[in-house]
Every structure is written in structure tokens, then in C-alpha cells.
Amino acid sequence: MADRTSRRRFLGRLALGAGAASAAAVALPFHGESDASSAPPASRRLRRWAMVIDLRRCDGCQSVGKPPQCTEACIQGHFAPAPMEWIQVYEAPLGTKGTQFIPTPCQQCQNAPCVNVCPVGATFATPEGTVLIDQQRCIGCRICMEACPYDRRFFNWGDPPQPPETMFLEYSPEHQDPAIRGTVMKCDFCPDMARAGRLPYCAQGCPNDAIYYGDLEEDVATNGRQVVKLSRFLAENSAYRQKEDLGTEPRVHYIPGHGEAVGRLASTAGRKATEWPWQSVIKGAASWKR
Amino acid sequence: MEALRHDVPADWRARLESRALAPLASTGRRYWLWVAFLLAVIAWGVYAYATQVANGLIVAGVRDRISWGVYIASFVFFIGISHAGTLLSAILRATKARWQLSITRMAELITVVALCVGALFPIIDLGRPDRLLNIFIYGRWQSPLVWDILAISTYLTGSTLYLLLPLIPDFALARDRLGASASRFRRTLFTLGAVGYRGTPAQRRALERAMTVMMIVIIPVAVSVHTVVSWIFAMTLRVAFNTTVFGPFFVAGAIYSGIAAIILLMAVLRRLLHLEEFITITQFKALGFLLAAFTLIMTYFNLQEYAVHGYKLESGMAFHFEQLMTGPFAVLFWTYILACIALPGILILDPRTRTIPGIVAAAALALVGMYIERYLIVVAGLRVPTMPYAPSSYSATWVEWSILGGAFALFMLIISIFAKLFPVISVWEVIEHRGPEPIPEPPRRMPAPRPVAVGARLLSLLVIAGSIVGFALGSNAAADDRAATKLAAAVPNEAALGETIEAQAVLTDAAGRPIPGAHIVFTSALSFLEATSDVVLGEGVTDTTGTADVSFDVRTTGALEVSAVFAGDDRYAPAKVTLPLVITGDRQLYVQDAGVRVPALNESPSATTVMLGGPNPILQFISALWPWASGWPIAAVLGTIWSLYVFVGYLVTRIARDAEVTA
Description:
The structure holds two protein chains of two kinds.
Chain A: H1 4-16, H2 20-27, E1 49-54, H3 69-78, E2 88-93, E3 99-104, H4 113-117, E4 123-125, E5 131-133, H5 143-147, E6 154-155, E7 184-185, H6 191-195, H7 201-205, E8 211-215, E9 220-222, E10 227-229, H8 230-236, E11 252-255
Parallel strand pairs in A: 1-11
Antiparallel strand pairs in A: 1-8, 2-3, 4-5, 6-7, 8-9, 9-10
Chain B: H1 10-25, H2 29-55, H3 70-81, H4 83-94, H5 104-124, H6 134-138, H7 144-164, H8 167-178, H9 184-194, H10 201-234, H11 246-272, H12 281-312, H13 317-325, H14 330-349, H15 356-383, H16 398-419, H17 427-433, E1 466-467, E2 485-490, E3 494-496, E4 500-509, E5 519-528, E6 531-541, E7 547-553, E8 558-566, E9 575-584, H18 605-612, H19 617-629, H20 632-662
Parallel strand pairs in B: 1-4, 3-9
Antiparallel strand pairs in B: 2-4, 4-7, 5-6, 5-8, 8-9
Helix pairs in contact in B: 2-16, 3-5, 3-11, 3-15, 4-5, 4-10, 4-11, 5-7, 5-16, 7-10, 7-20, 8-9, 10-11, 10-20, 11-12, 11-15, 12-14, 12-15, 14-15, 18-19
């Protein structure tokens, strides 16, 4: 379901000012009012966004011989500056032999440590359950980066490289363009995409349909191919959440496994490094390592 | 100046006054050279900071995974040495010790200057220093950084007051003695600083009272400051910071480094200002024993920290221990433990090295050690990986070292300037309460500080009710050699959102005989985002009457089609029946209530709004105010302390008013 053109079209709509629906979504981001085909119009019910990542289907994109495609799609869609991987595919040791790939976006904790410690309320939780950063308010103290137990926050240490398109975008914490030096960024869970009836970039990018995006309120989730009843899907597959014992109550669930559904042996390892294709065309940009 | 002690020899008193006031009257060339040197170092530090402002924090060594470094370590270090003043002038004064009176002024000076310099570091560390004011515009009670700002500003105000109060009689002394020989600026300063003090009994009483109030207030404030500083680490979910001992550990380390700082400063000023007669081996030995006592306290806290973590060795701690004890931080760690905690204690407890040079060396080691410790806490603590990634590394760049050098220069510059503006010895207190140095005697005992704590919790429920209506029929012809089946199902025509729907399916063969043990699935086609597919709502197994009772809820509103499906097996052909189902309602079903909610600390305003709910405008107004009102316990504590400061200010105005009356 790799739909690369959708991002460009979406940006184009915004840039032309023709995207009335998108503009409304930016202005009224948290009231579930949208033209999404899946939602009944004028409902007062708030969406409660959630994600399920089926690790049985994730092989770190070894079978396609490319860098993790969720990460790539996110980078292309959000213009995330290098070395930011808002959804990062960690390679964790698996038992005594081999490794397991764990795609990790911001876990969207409901008891979010980063929200608690922010001195200016730049990191905030929305009623929809997303944790967002207002880069126009962030003072760059980085205490949220200390507080996050999932290593999911990224800092613009220098002037972040940004493509010219971002200049036409209206800034929203739900779509953190353009990136601002001295502020923190992370996965925003793409609720603006979902409100417009689209899957987040990472779910679109996944060649194995391992990433499900869903709504706890409507109790459904989809990977773009199949719709599931979310509560049943989680219960039947013994889903877990990362570092459950910390009490952070993440909105990102995992179905245990290690890519066997796509034919990957647990003992195989090795992967291709993430790339930032859009960034290669920008000259003289600052760059740093994580 | 009325002296209470009548046994003070006049020549001793005259020598003290002239020695203490001498630096205020004349300034040598060496002083200006020193100031010029410090200014040059500061200018270099400012240049380094300008580089950082121009390019961003990319010029520093910190990165995403170790995102605090030298700046935050220096912040903790400087705030730590500020505890010197509190210990000497408040804790020892409260216990009626007298030996420290000739060095209290220096200790209070260190407190104020270290706080000013230390408070710069979090600002230097900001990615967006231009948005500093956001803290005051959008500040949140819940943030440990906001607690830091509140605690440090309260401590700075209190310790400035506590520096200025005992200065009043000394300013009066300088005003009366130096007179025309001082510059006009100094004369104005002395006159203003003395607030008309003439030593009348009423003024004395007001001054003593103000000092007693400050002496008591400043002790809990100082303890709370370093506890709160430790909380910017302890409040995060990092394995190396996950310890409740951090508060008292930081306070003990702060006092340890504070004692070391005062020993160094008094050794230097004693030499430069020729105060050997008034600051003697008595003060050095007493402070030395205090330092030795704190080496033991620090040993205890280190043991506590490493024994408890090391015994259990929770995930992450093994890595932390390895990196500290044998890994990249081993040299720093063992220097800190052996050379900066054990060695200073040995130097002081061994009578052969319990000399002024020996004690100064011990203090210097302690100070270096405490910087190392702060660095290790910040950098090594953050280096422990939180996720499966290769450990990061950090080395400070020239920008960070230059800014640190500039900060030390600034620290020394402010002290050098203050040494020219007021006596570095509290002349009147030494004269009144101490007199000439007696033959060296053993020092007196001293106390240790104590910590604080908080906690609470809340929960909510989700209730679902159920019902049944109507029947409908359907059939399915067998397309293969398996026996044909007939599936009848019943679901209500209409249901409310989230309501438990009791559905029933009856599976029979063509002759109407029930089929037991068949797996019946209820599905419905649902659309979400880009996809539409059949979603399993619930499932059941038929009993001996061929009936499967299945209950499920549907959370999608609108007209749906629910199907009961029998997928078929070896003997029976598949069957399916589809029925309409209208789901109505607009009720929010998923209410989140995560985490531990501590009222006034981390309770979120949105949860309060949900709790109060409803369109009641008064309740909505109150809940909208909650984010500001939620900090009431903090506001109450701060209010108490600040009103005591105001009271002290009032006492100072009493001194000034009394001067007008007597004049």
C-alpha cells in the first residue's frame, strides 16, 4: 500500500489553499469533526487513536532488501531531518540466537512522562490521546528527552534542513513542518491524515501490512487491507505494550512474533541503513548524529 | 558600634577594623591585573556562547541520547557549592557555634554568587534562549524545571537578604571610619547599605530578630533547593536515576562541596588580605573536621546507592555499573571515590597532614571530586540505553569548556568585586561574639539535614446493558457433496451504541435436525480510513439444539449489515445469513483514565473537565482555572517563605525609621 503520491497531493492542496477540509482539521484538530468517510457526520464522539504493530509480519524489510519502509515513508512524508527516525525499527536480540525487529513510533503514552515534565506545556496530550509538541512554544530544555523511556524524542541541534515545499505549509503540531532549530520533534501519530481518511505514512509504507492504525472509540483498526475489531484483535493475539511496567499506558500495541509470517528466520540478521532521500538535494544543510 | 564584650583589647579591635576595611580604601595594581585576566576569560566564554547562539547547540557535544552534559553538571555543581553559606551562617549559628563568625561573610558571599552563576547554566543549555519568557507565560506547576526556578529564586532572594542583614552594622562602620577617604560611589553604597544604623538598642533588636527569622527560614529553603535540583533527574524514567535517595544524596554532596569551596576561598583571602590573625588554624581545623564528617556521609550515600542497585542489578544497572567501574568512566569514577572522597578524609584525620596546606589540599580534591560526581550522574546516567541501541558517547566541545571557564571566571570576578565593596569579615559579629582568637581548641559538633515526600490516586468505570428483539430467516443451498445446512439467525433490528447485542444463530441440516458443535461467526462489513472489510464481531459454538448464543457490541453508528456465518466443515456445507442492524447514538464510550493522578501535581486539567463534565458554566470556569490553581500546595509554601522575607524587609525599615527618630 505504498502510496507515495498522496503526500505530494496533500501538500499541494494545502499550498494552494484549496484544502478547506484540511484547514478545518488544523483549526479544529481535536473535535473529531471531519469529512472522513468512516465517521458519521456531526458526531460528538472523540476519536481515540491507537496503533497495533504485528511483529509476526515485520522482518525489518529484509525480504524487500531495502531500509525499513515505514521509516522511509515517514521521512518522506514529514521531511523529518536526518538523523531523526520518528518510527525507528530497533533490532533487539531474540533469545539466544538472532534478532527481532521492533518498529517503534512515539508510544503516545496516556500517562506521558514527557507531558508531565514540560515546563511550558509545549508537549501536550490531546483528548484524542495523541501527545504532540508545539514547536513554536518549546524552549529547548530537553527535560522531555530525559523523561521519555522509549528514546522517541529528537532535537534540532542545528538548523534543520528543510525542502522549499515546507515554506508553503501552515504550521501545526500535528504536522511539524517546517522544523525549527532548538526544538524537540517526534512522531505525531498523523491524526490529521486519519481525519482526512488516510492511513499514516508508516502504515502506508509497510510492504507487509504489519502496521494497523485504529480508533479505540469505534473499536476498529486497519492496515489498509483488512479492518479488524480492535479489542478482539488485541485480545486474540496476546498483544502487549512496550515497558508496560512503567505505567505509561501507551497507545501503541504489539503482537508478539518475529517476522515468521513473511518467511524470515529469527537467526538471520543484518539490514540496510535508513536513508533521507529528500535531504540529498539540499545543499549546505547542518547535519549531526544521534 | 557598641561592643557587648568588654574584654576585647582595644589594639586587637583596631587591627581587625583596619584590616577588614583596608581593601575598601585602596586598590593595588595586582588587583586590576587579576580583574583584567578574569574579564578576558569571561569574554572568551561569551564568545563561545555567541557561537552557540548563532549556530545552535550543534556546537556543543550533547546529542539526542546524552542530551545534557557539562552545562547541567555545572548547574548542579554551582548550586551545590552555594550550600556553604547556609551551613556556616545558619546551621552553625542555630547551634550557637561561634568559631565560624569570622568566615560567615565569605560563606554567604559564595552562596549568593554561586547561585547567580549556577542559575545561568540552564539558560545557556536552552535550545531557544529567546523563548525564556515562555516559562513565565506558560509555566506549569507540574514541571520539575519550574520547581527549580521557584526554589532557586526563593533561595537566592533569601540568601541575598541573609548576606545583607549582617552587613548593615559593617556598612555603618565603613561609613563612619572611611568617610572622605572612600570614593563617592562607595560612600553612597555605605550610607544606603547601613540604612541609618547607629547601634541603638531598638535597631539592635530589630536586626537580631530579622537575622533569627532568616536563620530559621534559610535552612529548609536550602535543603529543598538541592532536593528539587536532584528531582530533574529522579523524576524521569531512567534506570540510573530511579532512586529515592537522590534528594538527600544531592544535599549531602552540596554541603560537602560547599565546605570545600569556603576552605579554598578563606585560604586565598586570608593570604591576600592579611587576615592571618583573624582566620586561624582553628577555622581550618573546624571546617576540616566538618569536611571529614561529610566524606563519611558521602561514603555512606555512595554505599547506599551502589549496594542497593548492585545487589538487584535490574536491567540497565549492569550496564551502568560496568561503564562506571571498568568502562569508559572508570578513571573518573575511581578518581572520585578514592582521591576525592577517601583521600580528603584521610588527609584531615591524620594529624600529620591536618595543617592548613593539608586541609586546603583536601578541600581542593573534594571540590574536583564533586564536579566529577555531578558529571558522572548526568552523562553516565543518560548513557544507559533505554531501548535496544548501541550506547552513545559524549565529549564536551571547546564551546562547553570555554563557557564553563567563563563561568568560573565570572564567579571569581563577582567575589573580587564584592571584596572591594564590603568587609569580607563580619567585623561587628567577631568583635561582639568572639573576640581575639583563643589558643586552638577542638571544634564543636554539627547537625545534618533531612528530606521530604508526596502521593495519591483515582479511577473510573464503564457500564454496559443488554436486550433482544425479533427473528429472521435465511437459507443456503449446498454446492458440494457435503450435507446442506440451514442457518437461521436473530439480531435486534436496532441497538444503541456500545450496547451489548445478544444474537442467536440456529444451524440445522436440510431435514431440520440441529447440528451441534459448529463454529458460528458474526461479521459485519466496516470501513475505516482506506479499507473496508468484514470484521468479526463475535463468535460461538452451537449446542445440542443447534443454537449458538453470541453477544457483542458494535461501536460504529449507522445502518449495518450483520452476517451470521458458518464456514462449513468436513460434513456440512457453509451457510450464511445477513440481517440489517441500525446502531444509533452519539455517546463517548472510550474514556481514558491512565496513570496515577496526584491532585495539584500532575492531575491533568482535561481529566478534571471530564469529571466535572456537563455544560454548567460555573463548573467549566472552575475547571478552566484548575491548571493555575492546581499548584496551591507549592504556592502555599512559597507564600509562607516570601511573606517571612517581607517581614524581614519590614524589620529593616524599622532600623531605618529608628535612625530618623534618633537623628
